[in-house]
Write a structure and sequence with these properties.
The complex is a heterodimer of chains A (599) and B (159). Helix content of chain A is 39%, strand content 16%. Chain A has 599 residues and is α/β, with parallel strands linked by helices. In chain A, helix 7 (147-157) runs antiparallel to helix 8 and helix 10 (208-222) crosses helix 13. Chain B has two domains: 8-67, Arc Repressor Mutant, subunit A, CATH 1.10.10; 79-158, Glutaredoxin. Classes of the chains: A alpha/beta (599), B alpha+beta (159). Chains A and B meet through helix 1, strand 10, strand 12, strand 16 and helix 17 of A and helix 2, helix 4, helix 5 and helix 6 of B.
């Protein structure tokens, strides 16, 4: 029997490590430590209901487990074979308990290729990975295929770069393979910087061996003996697990000299990022690995010709690499049966925001936003209305209800004014203000712009200033036109992908939420109640009983007596000085009588 | 050459770290990671010493330190508070949480309380979007935060 406990970031933050400790202690107490194995796995995906505990082989999926629930699980389920119903997932529609993840709406429409092992293996034990088919693809490549055949298979699969741009992976490998050099490099881009996206982290934390294997396969195909992983220093757990996987792979003869006795040499080293979004761009990433500022350079030359230390290098994103071993074992033809013709396979999305089921999902390309948001995501939180979904992070755009039935792939998202990006998918309801969201992304871009080219360095700053003007109630209709013009110039003239896509959040919100911009400019109103400078806090003097709780809690001393006693009350009601008010909302949350409102 | 005001011990630590990377200028980012790990932040003197050891100009080292957001030239508080401003947290009200911390501690973003106990900063995505909005205090993650929870959380550390 196995007990699998999620050790991903989300569940870990809700004490899953204490749960693991409790399982170990209680099993020992019952003398069951040899029969039941306790395994800390990577992310199961259903972060909303974490921490998650899975019991194998009967596939029971316990949700929102607390450390104190462990004793019951051991005594009831493990000892007596009776499931603990209160800890099972409850279908929100018919209130029935579901014990197997396969029957949950969250998992039904998912197809797991890149995440195939996440939540099923102990990521710190290579043998578990091998028992689930790990390193089979590498063995197949080294013993049955020529490097040309590997590349041909990758090309035939139609796999496209999952980092966001969607460049065909097989073609990238071929370009690098063609260049002759004494040393080439395989680089894995694990510098996931898109705020709200954690796909790559989950793969590295849940199944690091698939990345090690894929990099070795790529090395064989392009003729490289060295691999480098550029990973964020902010991901200590992913770094640790990758290190363990590399060390174990060396021990098992799957890395190092003479891999599997075939004469092929390949080894992997880690390089740490230091927090720069632009380093996701491959030329910037390479400069950062060389110990410089991570500034991009003009392409060509492409890294396939002159990359790390001037040698031909192939840069692939984590999720792209995670697909490689499966394509080799099951074949390109099988891979093409999933997804759409131009974008075969699946995509991992980090589903977040105002949605019931936050988590990590992997879905076939061609699925609609409606299926993702309403079936997998379980709809909008608290029964509110869907307003927009943001894909592609700071480079993407906001899509609206009219895009809900668009089949998602690289090309359809671009056509709709957004992009695939690395896989962040943030759902928003009516409490989100679209000009403020555009400003939020622009502030991010301004902070992260490397400053090398002026369209990005200065242009985005100006865009951000205009948005500040609009969201503080000082905008004009001319400003809206200026936003559009400036955005177009930045798109056309910026040096790298970051600058060329940075105006997308502005353009897509202008296109899809024009009315909301006009309201901010003409009526000086923010319908979502987000833009503080357009809000006014008021106390209803008839409802106020004059208890003064709001005045005590006000950090700005903006509340005082109104010198007016409402009929039926004993004390004077209170009033807010709009000049002093910080609009922090402390008074509203403190008022038991519902007398304070935002206008 | 700059006058180094660092203590002998600190100079020794920096020299050892640089030597462990072969004093190669290409290893500067790894060196800075380790040095910051030891001292908490990268002061001007520390940067001068690193530049000296790796045979680089101080300007180049400063250029790298200021480029990457992970490197900091400011000392952090005993309990560094980082409020996540990733998109998922933002749409679930992270700004209000940040305001509440700022109000409670009476510091602005990037500042440290006068007693050196708390410092307040923001970061982009902890990867715990299921718990949004989140903040980290040291290594501990606090999830599903609302502004009224903040005074209680700060009190945990004041006792």
């Amino acid at each position: 029997m196995h007990v699998l406990i999620c050790g991903g970031t989300g569940c870990k933050s809700s004490n899953s490590l204490d749960i693991i400790d409790n399982f170990r202690t209680i099993l020992k107490e019952k003398n069951l430590q040899n029969e039941v194995q306790v395994i800390k796995t990577g992310c199961f995906g259903f972060c909303e209901k974490g921490p998650i505990v899975k019991i194998m082989p009967d596939n029971t999926f316990y949700t929102q487990v607390k450390p104190e629930d462990v004793r019951r699980i051991v005594e009831e389920h493990i000892v007596k074979g009776r499931k603990v119903p209160e800890l099972l997932y409850m279908n929100p529609e018919n209130k029935e308990h579901v014990s197997d993840s396969k029957h949950m709406d969250f998992y039904k429409k998912q197809i797991r290729i890149a995440l195939r092992n996440c939540g099923f293996v102990d990521p710190e034990n290579i043998e578990e990975s091998i028992s689930r088919g790990g390193y089979e693809a590498l063995a197949k490549c080294l013993t049955e295929m020529t490097p040309e055949q590997v590349i041909a298979e990758m090309k035939a699969s139609g796999l496209r770069g999952r980092g966001g741009a969607g460049f065909p992976t097989g073609l990238k490998w071929e370009l690098c393979a063609k260049n002759k050099a004494d040393q080439k490099y395989v680089i894995c881009n694990a510098d996931e910087g898109d705020p709200g996206a954690f796909m790559d982290r989950s793969i590295l934390e849940g199944d690091p061996n698939s990345i090690v294997e894929a990099m070795a396969i790529c090395g064989y195909a392009i003729g490289a003996t060295k691999g480098l992983v550029y990973i964020r220093a902010e991901y200590p757990l992913a770094i640790e697990r990758l290190r363990i996987a590399i060390a174990q792979a060396r021990e098992y003869g799957l890395l190092g000299e003479d891999v599997l006795g075939t004469g092929f040499n390949f080894d992997i080293e880690l390089r740490y990022g230091a927090g720069a979004f632009v380093c996701g761009e491959e030329t910037a990433l390479i400069h950062s690995m060389e110990g410089q500022r991570g500034e991009p350079t003009l392409k060509p030359p492409f890294p396939a010709v002159s990359g790390y230390l001037g040698k031909p290098s192939n840069v692939n994103n984590v999720e792209t690499l995670a697909n490689v071993p499966v394509i080799i074992t099951k074949g390109a033809a099988w891979f093409r049966t999933i997804g759409t013709e131009k974008s075969p396979g699946t995509k991992v999305f980090a589903l977040a925001g105002q949605i019931n089921n936050v988590g990590l999902i992997e879905v076939p390309m061609g699925i609609t936003l409606r299926e993702i948001i309403y079936e997998i995501g379980g709809g909008i939180k608290d029964g509110r209305q869907f307003k927009a979904v943001q894909t592609g992070g700071p480079s993407g755009g906001c899509l609206t209800a009219k895009h809900l039935d668009t089949a998602i792939d690289y090309d359809s998202l671009v056509a709709a004014g957004s992009m695939m990006g690395s896989g962040g998918m943030v759902v928003m309801d009516e409490t989100s203000c679209m000009p403020a969201i555009a400003k939020f992304y622009l502030e991010f871009t301004c902070e992260e712009s490397c400053g090398k080219c002026s369209p990005c360095r200065i242009g985005n700053k100006r865009l951000c200033e205009i948005l500040e003007k609009i969201t503080s109630g000082n905008g004009t209709m001319e400003d809206l036109q200026n936003l559009r013009n400036l955005a177009a110039v930045i798109k056309d003239t910026a040096l790298c992908g970051l600058g060329q896509t940075s105006p997308n959040p502005v353009l897509s919100t202008l296109d899809n939420f024009w009315d909301e911009y006009v309201e901010h400019v003409v009526d000086k109103k923010c319908r979502a109640g987000v833009c503080k400078k357009l809000m006014k806090y008021e106390i209803d003097r008839e409802k106020c009983i004059g208890c003064g709780k709001c005045a005590k809690g006000c950090p700005a001393d903006a509340i005082s007596s109104a010198n007016y006693i409402a009929p039926g009350h004993k004390l004077s009601s209170m009033t807010i000085d709009a000049e002093k008010c910080l609009k922090c909302g402390a008074c509203i949350s403190g008022c038991k009588f519902g007398a304070i409102s935002v206008k | 050459m700059a006058i180094i005001k660092l203590s002998e011990d600190k100079v020794r630590v920096i020299k050892d770290i640089c030597a462990s990377f072969g004093n190669k200028s290409g290893e500067i980012i790894n060196v800075l990671h380790q040095v910051q790990g030891r001292f908490g932040y990268l002061s001007a003197e520390v940067q001068e010493e690193v530049a000296h050891e790796l045979n680089m100009s101080v300007a180049k080292v400063y250029g790298i330190v200021s480029f990457y957001s992970f490197f900091t030239m400011q000392p952090k508080g005993e309990h560094p508070i980082d409020v996540c401003l990733g998109t998922a947290c933002y749409v679930r009200g992270a700004e209000k949480v940040l305001d509440a911390f700022s109000r409670q501690l009476n510091v602005k973003i990037g500042e440290c309380t006068p007693d050196g106990k708390f410092s307040l900063n923001t970061l982009r995505c902890v990867g715990a979007c299921g718990l949004a909005p989140v903040a980290m205090i040291g290594d501990k993650v606090y999830g599903r935060l609302t502004p009224d929870m903040i005074p209680g959380i700060i009190a945990e550390y004041n006792n």
